[in-house]
Write a structure and sequence with these properties.
By secondary structure, the chain is mainly α. It has one domain. 65% of the residues lie in helices and 8% in strands. The protein contains 5 helices and 4 strands; from the N terminus they run αβααβββαα. Strand 3 and strand 4 form a beta hairpin.
Length: 151
């Protein structure tokens, strides 16, 4: 049985809120050296906000897996967006692999965003394959191009 849009919206919002809260708690708990802050522009804030809106629109896709993946991705976006809002458009990165000159600094929100993107890509591929009979058939020029590329 397919979940309704409201149920899928719930599956986006709840993980997003929980993961963003976990990220903010970690950022508030761990000390971040000054060089581990990444400044963010107003354009980044606008793009992040747009990404959250698009993620909410993914509730229209009839898949719980897509909704949960969008929630994980949104948790990362929301965590970094809120921490930037709380710290003059700078995002703290308290986690580090390597040293200051040869390593990377990141935060949980970064991990959630990347994991959510990977999950979302796989989930959307699964939904597309499961519903391939509903896709628009290729036009004549697309079929000709495909044949030309094959042979």
């Amino acid at each position: 049985m397919r979940a309704r849009v409201s149920e899928r919206l719930f599956l986006i919002v709840v993980p997003a809120a929980g993961l963003a809260a976990a990220d903010l708690i970690l950022k508030a708990t761990l000390v971040t050296p000054p060089w581990h802050f990444h400044p963010r522009s107003n354009g980044w804030v606008l793009l992040s906000t747009a990404l959250l809106v698009v993620a909410l629109l993914l509730a229209l896709v009839p898949s719980r897996l897509v909704a949960v993946a969008a929630g994980v991705m949104s948790g990362g976006v929301l965590g970094n967006l809120l921490s930037a809002a709380l710290d003059a458009n700078r995002v703290p990165n308290p986690l580090q692999i390597g040293d200051r000159t040869g390593g990377i600094a990141f935060n949980l929100a970064d991990v959630f965003f990347l994991t959510g993107n990977l999950l979302l890509t796989v989930a959307l591929m699964v939904v597309t394959i499961q519903n391939r009979q509903r896709l628009i058939p290729p036009r004549a020029w697309e079929r000709a191009l495909r044949e030309r590329l094959r042979g």
